[in-house]
Write a structure and sequence with these properties.
Elements (H helix, E strand, L loop, with lengths): L4 H6 L2 E5 L8 H12 L8 E5 L5 H9 L4 E4 L7 H14 L7 E5 L6 H7 L4 E6 L3 H21 L5 E6 L10 H7 L5 E2 L9 H5 L3 H5 L4 H19 L2 H7 L14 H4 L2
Parallel strand pairs: 1-4, 1-5, 2-3, 2-4, 5-6, 6-7
Helix pairs in contact: 2-3, 2-10
The structure holds adenosine-5'-triphosphate and magnesium ion.
């Protein structure tokens, strides 16, 4: 599958949520992103593909937001080839649907065929905590994605690291930024370690969505705004097509306005 940049830029945007590391929040971010975007665009323009046999995303998103399209296409060793092809086909069929977005939640682990497909997408969101236990494998995942990009001399997929489960009050991301400084990535807004995520997974959606649940509302709507602006509305394309980008491999979201002008 070889998309031209024009299709990637103008057609349906494919966003993979991936990391070799398990338990970093791939499913949580896939779900919360779909929900946040559903408040900004017609939900029928949003499709979430759940490729994890665990079915977390399918199960919870169907229950909380049945208006969002959900496809369950598990990529397991047994079905790997078949379902990777199906995901590929789905993305291809939707290529011409301008204004649509396809969010693909992936299982942990390494599958070269899957990474090749991820390498053909528009953007990859890479959730990680800031602990070294997660950052080390995350960095090696980024390195392999970077290689795929460099091989074709492409600006796609945009790689967006999403700091997740960040302790409350943590303001210093310099260790992470330093670690990622030699990679062609952007750091998205941090999502804190939110106790209320548990309510969501307990099926208590009303409680999770309640106006008193300020922290979750703040973090996930901030995250949704970031993806909307930088990914869906093409701000990252502009940054990457601008020569300035050579000089700034890591653009922490917090510094957005100051460094990107
Ligand atoms: N921001 C957060 N605050 C609190 N808990 C979180 C947050 N993000 C994820 N979790 C919790 O961490 C656990 C792992 O999250 P999740 O299932 O989204 O990770 P994953 O990367 O999809 O895992 P897997 O590799 O197994 O698919 C879950 O119990 C989830 O509730
Ligand atoms: Mg998962």
């Amino acid at each position: 599958m070889n998309y031209s940049s024009d299709y990637l830029k103008n057609g349906a945007k494919s966003i993979f949520v991936a990391n070799v590391k398990g338990g970093v929040g791939k499913s949580t971010l896939s779900i919360m992103l779909a929900r946040a975007l559903a408040t900004k665009m017609a939900p029928e323009k949003i499709t979430v593909i759940d490729t994890d046999l665990q079915r977390t995303t399918t199960e919870f998103l169907t229950a909380s937001n049945p208006e969002i399209n959900i496809e369950f296409l598990p990529i397991t060793p047994t079905f790997e080839n078949t379902n990777i092809s199906l995901v590929q086909q789905f993305v291809k069929q939707n290529m011409f649907k301008t204004g649509h977005v396809i969010i693909i939640d992936t299982p942990a682990g390494t599958s070269q065929r899957l990474w090749n497909l991820v390498g053909e997408s528009y953007t990859v969101l890479i959730p990680t905590s800031i602990s070294n236990a997660d950052l080390a494998p995350t960095e090696s995942f980024i390195r392999s994605m970077d290689k795929i990009k460099a091989r074709y001399n492409k600006i796609y997929p945009h790689l967006v690291v999403c700091p997740n489960r960040i302790p409350f009050g943590q303001k210093d991301f310099s260790i992470m930024a330093k670690r990622l400084a030699n990679h062609d990535v952007v750091i998205g807004p941090a999502i804190r370690d939110l106790a209320s995520v548990r309510h969501f997974y307990n099926g208590k959606f009303a409680k999770f969505d309640h106006q008193d649940n300020i922290n979750a509302k703040e973090d996930f709507s901030h995250f949704g705004d970031f993806i909307n602006k930088f990914v869906l509305k093409g701000q990252l394309d502009k940054i990457y097509n601008n020569d300035v980008h050579e000089a700034m491999n890591v653009v922490p979201f917090q510094k957005d306005k100051k460094t990107r002008k």
